[in-house]
Amino acid sequence: MDKRGRFAELFRAEYPGLVRELRLILGDQRLAEDVAAEGFVELWRHWETVGGFNRPGAWVRRVALRKAGRARWRRRRRRVVEASFHPMQSADDDNVDLVAALGQLSKAQRTAVVMHHLGGWPTADIAEVLGCADVTVRSHLSRGRHRLAELLEDRNQTEVDDAEPS
Fold this sequence. Notes:
mainly alpha
């Protein structure tokens, strides 16, 4: 298969999952699509080298996550802060409460939880993508899961309290 064919195959395999992960990390579908596309543009620019890697999808994720961080910083500078995060109304089956709770995690926790639990990535691979130690990823996962449990339990309790007559 030629260079374009290999790239197109990787794009078809990795792009949808990357966009979904970025959307849950960033809280914005269009921004996630833009960042993922920018990551693949960078991949194409470096394809001669990266195309020979065992996991070029991990490389593009690392680039996209770096770009996502910059995009968030730019967005904050324009007065759109994380406190204004609103859950997306989407046609897919993502749980709105989960998306809202993910928005309240730190970026590192949110990234680790999304990549591991929704993207199916092993912690060692996430560590490679993020450029940190495996134990750091496991720590982010543990703290993120604990915080999510608290947030989702609070939401469930509020729903029960609201449903009970006074």
